[in-house]
From TrEMBL:
Binds 1 Mn(2+) ion per subunit. Binds 1 Mg(2+) ion per subunit. The magnesium ion binds only when substrate is bound. It comes from Nocardia mexicana. Residues 40-174 form the Nudix hydrolase domain. Mn(2+) binds at residues 35, 42, 79, 123, 125. The active site is at 77, 125. Catalyzes the 1,3-allylic rearrangement of the homoallylic substrate isopentenyl (IPP) to its highly electrophilic allylic isomer, dimethylallyl diphosphate (DMAPP). It is an enzyme of class 5 (isomerase). This is Isopentenyl-diphosphate Delta-isomerase. GO terms for biological process: dimethylallyl diphosphate biosynthetic process; isopentenyl diphosphate biosynthetic process. Its cofactor is Mn(2+); Mg(2+). GO terms for cellular component: cytoplasm.
Amino acid sequence: MIPEATTAIDRETLPVELVDEQGRPTGACPVAQAHTAPGRLHRAFSVLLFDADGRVLLQQRAGVKTRFPLLWTNTCCGHPAPDTDVTDAAAERLVEELGIRAALTEVGTFTYRAADPETSRVEYEWDHVLVGRFDGEPPRPDPAEIAAHTWMWPTDLQAAMAADPDAYTPWLSGVLAVISRSEVSQPQ
């Protein structure tokens, strides 16, 4: 059972699972430490929800985010705690950030490293990509996490990212690449 979001948590103090280049657990440290230069490779997840028409739900990260604030990205992302099922952690985070409950399916992983020039933080993540289905508007986006949200056609998103790549998070292209390679390009 996924709990309803209730109180604010300092997410920078929560533990993340460190991994090696094959995604095998090697330890743990707080989120803030994992994202301090030069960065430590750790487990993360990225969720992308599709509606019945095939559009994708994007969010603009809140201005208070410690990494890549105000950039557009996939529906939801985060870090599972050590020894936590990635799908369960992603489903819980989806509720916390947007108030959305959706069945999620993992479609692949990729690794990326990106330094945020604005905050001097580093993303170095073994990212699990999950997809799901949702129709409508998110019932309660958390303003501490999300500045805005929108539905977009995947082809329009690709064109927008090509026209203005600096408006999007550096991991979004990897998320889209994993989804395009998967057998299930969008959930039914």
